[in-house]
Amino acid sequence: MILRRYVLSAVMRPFLGTLVFLVAIYGAWAASKLISAGGAVSMTPSEFFTVIGLQTQVALEVLVPFSLFLAIITGLGQLAATQEALAIRANGGGDKMLFSSVAGVGLLITLIIGVESLWLRPQAYEHIYTISTAIDQDIDFSRIEGGKFYISQASQNDQGGRVIFADRREDDTLYQVFVAHTVNGRSEFIFARDAVQQASTDGDRVMDFTQGYLYQLVEQSDASDDWHLAFDEMRFVMPPPANPDPGNRRKSTSTEVLSKSAVPFEIAEYQGRFGAPLTTLLLALLAIPLSRFAPRSSRYGRMLVAVVFVIVYYSANSLARTWMESGVISLFPGVFWPQLLLVAVFVGLVMPTSRPRAQRFGRR
To answer: What predicted TM-score, i.e. pTM, was given to this entire model?
Structure first.
């Protein structure tokens, strides 16, 4: 029992350290990507951190298997490099004990990733879409604060996006408002003394502007097509945001619904959700024999082997999903052929050590 705990500690310490490091790096990258895309400026702090947290939760399907794979290779490899593995075997801890200890941890983490991939992942994407749809495709004026520029992304109803600025805000009224909007080659600019958003029963957002100017400029045209007008009151109607592309919306679809679909990209999403826990288990098992063949002279050498191996595998995994979505491959092996390759590599590494001793050393 003591030997088993010692082996587990040699694996879990680098696993937790690597996972925390990768989660921090991914969270920082996701935050910088959201900020650079302009979506963060129209979010409240709570919405911003919620989106980053949910994106990081989904990324755990990759970060956790990679961290575990790296930890097993480096942990067991370090035991072999320092001759601790020989001492463990001399005290009754053979290969079966090492394998069962690490495999038990791998199975537990596989079950956690399975719950995440099959049930929690769709819910996370549903929350992300709920927050991002209004923000990324069409800005809600009630979110706007004074002294900041707000930029919306292009959508089906708003091909060119929109830029909004207000000098200050008092209750529900914006003062010294500027709105720039481009659609179908026409750029419209609104300058108004104040603006108030009104409720609408049909789902449209209605903004009432007071005392301002409206300018329209037509691209690739002469000045005669441009015009402007002054107004005392003007109502600006914005259609509701379009639904996300169905190719992305599938990520928020429940696993039960996807199981009944015959659409290739939904089948790829369905199979991919089962592929995540399967990948976790196979990488954990494969890391055990690989730790014996990884370079023992340097811990960094073992890490390099693990990183290169995982990069190649996940590149193949991404290629498998692309082929499945485009109908290049059939339902079987579908997106599972990279996992089948992992099984083949694992069997190739384990089988030579499982032959009888007389057969392995008979010729010698």
So the answer is: 0.71
